[in-house]
Amino acid sequence: MTGKHNYKKEFEKAQQARVNRNEGQARVCARRAAGIAIREYLTRKEMQVPNMSAYDLLNLLKENADLPSDLQLIVDHLTVRVTEEFQLPFDADLIAESRILCDWLLNE
Q1: Helix axis angle, 23-44 relative to 94-107, nearest 10°?
Q2: Which domains does the chain have, with CATH numbers?
Q3: Does the global pTM surpass 0.90?
Q4: What are the b/e assignments for 10-29, b being 16+ CB within 10 Å?
Q5: Is the pLDDT assigned to residue 95 strictly greater than 80?
Q6: 10: nearest Cα among 54, 52, 48
Q7: Distance CA 51, CA 28 (A)
Q8: 56-60, 77-81, 95-99 — which is least confidently predicted?
Q9: Which of 37, 53, 70, 81 has the fewest CB atoms within 10 Å, measured from its CB?
């Protein structure tokens, strides 16, 4: 199964989680989709990609100076911890933002 297929499957799971009113699971799936795209992006850049979680790959990508500022903000959003009420401390659609990041990473 290709990475592109895997990341699309994560977006399908994210949408289903949102339909089921499980926003926490939707965030997890959006992060996993981003992790798949990050791994492919870094591999194409001929970087040795360690076996890391999607969250850790997002943090690794934060160190990438080549990332446009709007995408850097998306990476920041995808790595923010939720509040004690399990809500994001800002208003954002992480599924939509993750799609933007994935599209850029997979087409760069």
Answers
A1: 10
A2: 3-107 (1.20.120.330)
A3: no
A4: bbebbeebbeeeebeebbbb
A5: yes
A6: 54
A7: 18
A8: 77-81
A9: 81
